[in-house]
Structure formats: C-alpha cells, structure tokens
Here is the input.
Amino acid sequence: MIRQFKSTPKIYILVVAAIIFSSCNPQGIRRSRMQGEETMAKPDSFLYYQPMALSDSFLDSLKIENDKEQALKVRLIPPPPPPAPKTKLVEGFRVQTFAGLDSINALYLVERLKDTVKDSIYFFKENNLYKIQFGDYLYRNDADLKVMDIRKYGINGAWVVARMINVPIVADSSGSIIPADTVASVKDAPFKIQVLVTSDLQKAKNLTDQLKNQFERQSYFITSGQLYKIFLGKFIERADAEKVLAEVKNAGYKDAWLVYKK
Here is the structure.
C-alpha cells in the first residue's frame, strides 16, 4: 500500500505535463487552424499575426486580362512639303570684271560694283583665282550691252563669260518649271539662235540663204544701226533651241549663241 501510494504522484505529474505540452504546442495548433483554409497564406510568425490572402480587383484584372491585345490608333501628320525652288540653273552669260590673286583689290571692286550695278554680284574663288561676276543673262546681247554700260563708271576691261546662271522660275499649268521670263511670251517662240553679226549686207543675205538650206529652218537677219544680225529658227522650248545650237556649232559656226526675246 505504501509503495502504490508513492507512485500515484508521479503518474499525476506526467499527465499534467502532457496536457500542458499539448496545449502549448504551436505547430499543432497552427496545423489545426490551417486545415480547410486553402486561401489563407502561410503566416510569417504565428505569435504576432495571421496573414490572409486578400483579393485585389486591380491586380486580379491584370492577372486575368494580360493576354488580351489592345489596338492603338496613332494619327501621323506628315511634314509640310519643301518650298518650291525660286531659281533654276541654266546656261547663260555673266559679265566678269576681275580675275586675279589680289583678294584685297577684289573686295574693293565688289564694294564699288554694289554702288554702280543694280544686279546680282558674285564673288568667289575658282582655280586659285578670285573672280567677280555680275548679272544673269539668258542671251549674250544683254551681257554685251552691260559691258559697255559700266564703262561710264570707269570700270574698264570687263568681258562676257558663258556660265550657268540663276533664272527665276515659276510652275506652268502642267506643273513643269520654266524660266519666269518665258511665261508671258512662250506662245511667241521666244528662243532663237544668233549666228553672226556683220556690217556687210550682201554677206548677211548670202549667209541667211545658206543657213536656210543647210538646216532646213527659218533664217533671217535684222538691221541694228550699221550692223546686220543673222538668226536661225524660232523655238518655244529652250531645250529644242540648245539642241539645234549644238548642231550649228558643230557645223563650224563656233560663235553662235542662244538669244531669248522678251
């Protein structure tokens, strides 16, 4: 009896310890609470809080609709077209007043021309020479007259040079670009070829007949003071006139040039 009475307190102590341990087991309690709660997130720390999986309409929509395509409409405005050119390079003539190595003297002459010549002045360096030219003349006669005109200002020694010149242009009804000076008189065939200038009337008559037979085109001469100017053909388009001019020069009339009548 005494031995049985002594073992009873030990059994009692063991039972009490088992109950206390089971009640203080955090892992067992967490597993019992997590059963059936699949939407619940795993807690970071059971002792402080129990995190829950909260729904977010914005995030859920991104997750659900991320495979959908959204068409974007962008209106592209093209850049404005470049402005139409105001000038065109064509074969013509200019008056050259200087060609040399002295740039100081050239600059002085440029300033002098600005006061006397009401025209475009070109100062540039070409082939190691400083050159001064002015004017843009479609036909040589105008350039020759300008050479004589500037002599009254004391500018002597000027001469005419053949060069690409700047001619004002406009667009006709077909959209093609032609020199502005030809617009008003294009129907009157403004281009013609001047072959020769002579003071011999008989020579002018003979050459006129010769050109007419040789090129099968209209040939004539006009009187200008004591001189007779012999012409060949009448052309509406400059390109046609230049083509015939090349034929005339190849035939031996090297001094022939294109004339434009306003």
Remarks:
- The beta strands are 87-100, 121-126, 129-137, 159-171, 177-179, 191-198, 219-224, 227-235, 257-260.
- The two ends are 153 Å apart (CA to CA).
- The mean pLDDT is 75.
